[in-house]
Design brief:
The chain has 18 helices and 2 strands. A two-stranded antiparallel sheet has the order 1-2. The longest helix is centred in the C-terminal third of the chain and has 37 residues. The chain is globular and about 60 Å long.
Length: 444
């Protein structure tokens, strides 16, 4: 069933939807514990440099492919470079989006459950026991995962303009308001000085640790949704006259601001209660509920706001991840959006059930990792950098200079040649380092 390709209704609809894909668990959850265990300010400085020198060029490259081809992540490469194998780069992106959403749905379900708990009065007692018992149960996590995935499927089911764009227009302002409110409140808890020193006063010794560089560069790719086919897919719904550099700059600036403000939500609270900022992945579901309980009556309200924020952030990412697969399968099997969205959402949810069960209900592991952790490691350390690397090489090494300048809208700028140099030489080398070091750390 051939359908007319959809387009965004407005420039800001595209910006907000793209920002929604970038602003997700990577900002609130992954950024905070990566920064906490990665040297604080040293991590932040390297992260900001990575966003400018790597994130911006790669995003602009992905935008240029999608807008030029007006097709899904795989077909775009086939249209621009027919009878070549470059479409594999898009295939890696689609696979990454499919796999990432399978465990994102699980974590989104966890957040929904915590939102429900805070609606009922909060979590008391040992938050570690509560979390372990919950994720180790067979039925409950799957139920909440299913509810979360149903929300994502419902929005993508409606379409690009009426579903994704409309939901982004109300979700992103709410997200922004909630995180600013939480940051202001967190700064009143008594740990502000320590948090600001940790985040913004450089620890020069931390710069000697190569892992900090790799972690920060990897976080830059993850939080900006690069290598997942999202930016390519979303830009394929753009009007060909849309300017790309300004769109990429706005998305990156807003996403970076969101990540830093997330740190201002979490770190002042951690220092106020004498907790270690390097708490790790249990930060959200174990450490923060302990803080919320210690705050007394207002802690329930603060906890509710936080998990509503966390759930909306997860949902905005889930929508974009699902759209990558839906766009591909619609074209691949020539079926309608509604049919493909339901079937793809069901398949991703079923795969996510395996991830959910691997967290304690059953012994499901690969190479010593739980199934969820394996999928997380495989996508983050292999698929994302590999897809991004091939995509950047495809544009900068197979397109002519005039083509690059034209399709990235840098032809009439003073920095067009500098952009090509960075995208052609520096970005691929940095991505290759992230790929190699990430795989070594993951497999060790």
């Amino acid at each position: 069933m051939k359908e007319t390709r959809e387009q965004w209704g407005s420039h800001w609809g595209f910006i907000l939807a793209t920002m929604g894909s970038a602003v997700g668990l990577g900002n609130i959850w992954r950024f905070s514990y990566a920064m906490g265990s990665g040297g604080g300010s040293a991590f932040l400085i390297i992260y900001l440099i990575s966003v400018l020198l790597l994130g911006f060029p790669v995003m602009l490259v992905e935008f240029s492919i999608g807008r030029r081809a007006q097709a899904d992540a795989v077909e775009s490469f086939k249209k621009i470079a027919p009878k070549t194998a470059w479409f594999i780069a898009g295939g890696f992106g689609v696979l990454a989006a499919f796999l990432i959403l399978s465990f994102y749905g699980v974590i989104g379900g966890w957040s929904l459950r915590y939102t429900w708990e805070y609606l009922l009065g909060g979590i008391t007692g040992d938050s570690s026991v509560f979390f372990t018992d919950f994720i180790g149960d067979t039925f409950s996590p799957i139920l909440w995962q299913g509810i979360f995935m149903l929300l994502a499927v419902g929005i993508v089911f409606i379409g690009v303009q009426k579903g994704i764009e409309t939901s982004s227009k109300w979700m992103m302002p709410i997200l922004s308001f909630l995180i600013i409110v939480l940051a202001i409140y967190s700064l009143t808890l008594g740990g502000t000085t320590e948090a600001l020193n940790f985040m913004f006063r450089p620890d020069w010794e931390a710069f000697t640790d190569p892992n900090v560089y790799v972690t920060a560069m990897g976080q830059a790719f993850f939080t900006l949704s690069l290598g997942m086919g999202i930016m390519l897919t979303y830009s394929s719904y753009l009007n060909p006259d849309e300017r790309l550099p300004s769109s990429a700059a706005i998305v990156i600036a807003l996403d970076t601001a969101f990540a830093i403000i997330s740190g201002l939500v979490i770190f002042p609270a951690l220092f106020a209660f004498g907790l270690d900022p390097a708490e790790g992945a249990g930060l959200i579901f174990i450490v923060l509920p302990t803080i919320f309980e210690a705050l007394g009556g207002i802690g329930v309200f603060v906890g509710l706001i936080f998990f509503v924020l966390f759930t909306l952030a997860a949902l905005s990412s889930a929508i974009s991840l699902l759209e990558v697969s839906v766009a591909y399968f619609m074209r691949r099997f020539n079926k309608s959006r509604k049919v493909v969205t339901i079937l793809t959402g069901l398949a991703i949810t079923l795969l996510g059930v395996v991830s959910s069960l691997s967290q304690g209900a059953m012994e499901i592991s690969i190479f010593g990792y739980s199934f969820l952790d394996f999928i997380d490691g495989f996508t983050g350390n292999v698929l994302l950098p590999l897809s991004a690397l091939l995509t950047v090489i495809f544009v900068t090494w197979t397109w002519k200079k005039d083509e690059i300048l034209e399709h990235t809208d840098t032809k009439d700028t003073s920095w067009g040649s500098s952009f090509i140099f960075v995208a052609k030489y520096i970005a691929p080398l940095a991505i290759l380092v992230v790929l190699i070091m990430g795989m070594l750390n993951w497999l060790s």
